[in-house]
Amino acid sequence: MEKDISYEEFTSFVETFYLQSLKELKEMDEIDMDERCCDDEREGLEINTQENVMGNVNMIIEDIDKSKIDKIFK
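Now predict its structure.
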């Protein structure tokens, strides 16, 4: 089977997207730091970023044209 994207390319993309998203969320969180009860929000930011990335992946999968999926099963 010919692949359009290798596993290595996929993992590199996911890593880059996750780190970019984490950085953006951290920067937004720093703006709101005055409203926080504590300074260490790393775990919360990591969890939120993971949830955001997985939510994006789920939406992309749900939006795949069903005809593309049907072609695989023909």
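Residues 42 and 67 are 42 Å apart (CA to CA).
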